[in-house]
Amino acid sequence: MMHIYVYEPRDERIGGLMAELGAAQIVPVRISDAFFEGDLGMLTLEGHSSRPFLLADSALVIGQITRLRGAGCRNPIIILRDFRNTRAAAGTLDCGADDDLVIPLRAIELRARINSITRRAHGHAAPSLNIGEVTAYFDGRDPEVAGQRVFLSGREHAIFQYLALSASKVISKAAIYEAVYGLSEDQPFDKVIDVYICRIRKKIAAAAVSGHGYIETVHGRGYKISAPEQAGYETGDTLLPAPADSGALTYSSGMTIETAAQ
Questions:
Q1: Which of the two residues, 72 and 23, has the higher pLDDT score?
Q2: Is the CB of residue 146 less than 8 Å from the CB of residue 209?
Q3: Which of 62, 144, 219, 226 sits a CA distance of 20 to 30 A from 132?
Q4: 181, 119, 103, 7 alpha-carbon torsion, rounded to 10°
Q5: pLDDT grade, residue 201 (50/70/90)?
Q6: Is residue 137 helix, strand or coil?
Q7: Distance CA 129, CA 118 (A)
């Protein structure tokens, strides 16, 4: 699931837009003019920066973008306009928007554009990332572990993807909670993140040749997703499991490192 802030002041347009977003498993949170007058500093907190803004073009849009960026907001900002206007689009992009689109627009395309902006904001140009035996996709697909798909629920996928975007970095439970739930009216009990993390670990470990769960608990700080310790070499290659008792570590590039006999 993906949460997104939506600014569309026209009641005759909001219903169709919300339905289109919902069909693509995007959870819209409608905001009003008052949102931009409030404390935008919360958007700089961990967990909030992954939630995009979808802003309908209006006389206020340049001011809205300026306020968001001026508050330190790094969230993706996408403008929706009724008609193509090259000069106006250039103005929003120069002001800090990430994309400027003409409606009608299918949510599946919008989701792909948001995924592209988000992964690049986290330093990932490629549509996927290898973490040991795990392949994390940034286009909405479930991860693969040792070559087989691991099916995740909507919440599990949102948590996994948020961790994967910041692979090898410690992410606090509060940040994960905000990224997955945030302003949603469905606010669960405090331990729900722990429960989901446990489920994801079990699914990954069941599929991994190594049996490794890949999501580590860093006590007092949060969680991080990373490969087993043996994969900690300074290399861009993925560490592949070596045959039993081979005494070697084999990388995806074909390079093999002999290790000392046990």
A1: 72
A2: yes
A3: 219
A4: 40
A5: very high
A6: strand
A7: 14
